[in-house]
Amino acid sequence: MGIEEVKCPKCGKSAKVRSYSSINLTEKPKMKKDIIEGKINSAICLKCGSKINLRSHILLSYLEPPKWIWLVSKKHQHPNYQQEFLEKIAPQTTISTFPQQMVFVDFGEPCKGLELILSDSDPKCCEEWLELGKIQSGYDAVESYKSALRIDQRNVEAKKLLNDELDKLKTYT
What we know:
By secondary structure, the protein is an alpha/beta fold. It contains 7 helices and 8 strands. The protein has helices at residues 31-36, 81-88, 92-95, 112-119, 126-134, 138-151, 156-172; strands at residues 2-7, 14-19, 22-24, 42-44, 51-53, 57-62, 67-73, 100-105. The strands form 3 sheets. The chain has a 4-stranded mixed β-sheet with strand order 3-6-7-8, with no helix packed on it. The protein is globular, with a radius of gyration of 17 Å. The chain starts with a strand and ends with a helix. The model has no long low-confidence stretch (mean pLDDT 90).
């Protein structure tokens, strides 16, 4: 955590805000609530009211059992991004050492799907599978949407999201 000076992209006003590049959730479990509610790495300009996003990646870590969860801006959400990121950006020694997961979020916005990830619980209904799929990409998202459809075959949103993700997979492969 650190204090970072940022400029509003709309009006140019500068402000100093708290910024995170990583958060150890074993040491700071109370941060989960702020993360799920979208209260980290985003600020509101005091002059014009615009949203300011501070980073495009945040690493959430657990010590026991060891696990990394990468929160990544939705602007990077495409099927190949996780593989490219882990191969080119993440430390090579950690990739095979312990589990890593990537989810795509709108920083500054609440995220129901992230609540499932951080509580390490399985979705129990169609809506939870949809929320989980929305923060995933590629085959992970496809499997979440299929699970939603197994619960409710008539869910129009699940069908649309599944088809959209399958189209993305065709484009990126």
